[in-house]
Amino acid sequence: MRKLQxxxxxxxxxRLDELLDSTLVRDGGPDRMLFLVTHQICEMWFALILGxxxxxxxxxxxxxxxxxxxxxxxxxxxMQVLSAQFDVLATLTPAAFExxxxxxxxxxxxxxxxxxxxxxxxxxxETRYLTVPGFTEQETARLVRRMDEISVADAxxxxxxxxxxxxxxxxxxxVEQLRAAMLDFDEAVVAWRARxxxxxxxxxxxxxxxxxxxxxxxxxRMTARRLFPDAWPGANGGTDA
Length: 241
Hints:
The protein is mainly alpha-helical. It has helices at about 10-15, 15-20, 30-60, 65-75, 75-90, 95-100, 115-120, 135-150, 150-165, 170-205, 215-220.
């Protein structure tokens, strides 16, 4: 981690020169810039989410559900910001979207390895995503590592079982608060997926997406996925267990 200096300016603190040089804020006209910068911002949020999930998992494994709840409890608000990104993209005209789409080539949002890492870190893991065309060796290696690690869902299930086996009212309250935070995050992700699907349908209709993806039909199916299925009522980790 870079050590901050007392005399750093706002520009220095945010590394604005490096940031703006590496982004696409001046690349190809306002519509294309809007499309690309929006996706870059999403990736920055994804990185932040991953950091929070890793800290939450470590806290759960250390028997500290309070810290885990605080970390995961912030994520629904982040997902709301990410959903609002789609509202911004919806301001594009169909013609502008078609021009941008024509230039995307084989690039597709399905190639976001960080989003797959988020899913894997939570516990939603599908090996088919390890072979998505466009991932670098480093990205695939990170996903494989996530496959081998204990997930947030696994860590929660272990903690919930420990607390059920050794009942303590205060401890169980903390576990329930963590579970509620996980479900809030899960719901926020479903809302984000639905907003994405709706936007894709608005621009694509039933046409396929880029890189051979199925477009809006695929995205609508993804809204049925849950990051923490066992934390929902009636499941092993839910209150009805």
